[in-house]
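Sequence in, structure out.
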Amino acid sequence: MSKAEREFDIVVYGATGYTGRLVAEHFVREYGGKPGAPKWAMAGRSLDKLAEVRGLIGAPGDTPLVVADASDPGTLDAMCHRTRVVLTTVGPYQLYGSELVAACARSGTDYADLCGEPAWMREMIDAHHEHAKGSGARIAFSSGFDSIPFDLGVLMLQNEAVKRFGKPAPRVRGRVREMKGTFSGGTAASLTATMKAVAKNPKLVALLSSPFALTPGFDGPDQPAGMIPHYEDDLGRWAAPFIMATINTKNVHRTNFLRGHPWGEDFRYDEVVGLLKNPFGAKPPAPGEGPTAEERETGHYDVLFIGEMPTGEKLRYAVKGRYDPGYGSTSRMLAETGIALLASDAEGGIGTPGSILGEALVERLREHAEITFAVEE
C-alpha cells in the first residue's frame, strides 16, 4: 500500500494525555465536518480512555481509536503503517520515543513531536536520519513553543533581510519581550530525565552545551553566550538567560545547516528574555496536568528578532501568539505541523519545522493558530 492510500492522514498518539487531548480538540474545532478535512484518529494505550476522551472533547462518535503502547514496538509499527503522519505528545521522548521514531523511519511515516531534549534528538539523528531519507519519512522534532516561534521567526527575518538588503543578517538576536503562561509539565519532566542521563553519562555535557550539537560534521563560530544578565540600549531593558535557549538555538542552527547555510557558515544567534516577573508561572504542573481553559485562553507571548547587518542597519521582526505558550499555542502548532506535512513535498530525513516546512507552516499558523509573523518598522 502506498503512503497516499493509507487509512488515516494523521494519528494523534498520546490523545488521552493533557496536551494530546488539546491537539485532538484542535482537529475537532478547526476541521470537524469541513470539506477536505484530514482523516484522523486518536491513539493511546487504553481503548476505554480513548473512547472517554473522544466523548469529552465532542469528537464524532466514529472518530477511529488506535491502541498503541511505547512498551510494545509491534503496536507502534502497526500504527505507523496505517497513517501518513504521526503526532506524538508521549514524552519524555528519551524514555518513550525511540521506538516510534525508528518505526516511522522504517515505514516512511511522517512524524512531529514536542521534544526539547537535544541529547536524545542527536542520538535519533545519528541512528535514523539516513533511514528516514531512504524511506521518505519527514521527522520534525520540536514542533511546539520550543522551537517553532524561534525557528520560523529567524527564517522569516532572514527572508526579509534578503529582500531589503540583498543578503541575510550574519547576526540575529532573539528577545522574549512578553510571556504569560504555565511552564509545561512535560518539559519539566524532560529536563529531569535529561539531568538523570547526564549523571549516568557526563560526556553529554559537551553536547548539551554546544550550539551545534544538532549539526553533525559542522561546528560554526563562537556564539554569543546570552547567559549573563545585561542591559540592552536599543531595547531599553535588562535581559536575562532564557531557559529554552539551549534547545531553540540548536534548532535554529540545524535549520540553517539543513538548508545549506543560506544565512552563512559564520551565522551567530542567541536568545534572552526580558526581566519579567515569573514568566512561566509559579510552579510547573505535573506531567498529564495543565492550566485551566481560562488560563490557556488568557496566555500569550511576544518574541522580537533583531537582524544586524555589517553596515549597521537593523531589521526587527516579531512573532506573537495568542494562548499560553506551553499548552494552548503549542497544541495548535503541533496540529498544524501535521497538516503541513500532508501537503509537503520535502525529502525525507530528520529535520526541523523550519527546514522541512518553512514558509508553508508559517501560513498555516497565521490562518489556524492565531500566531502573527510580521516586520516591525
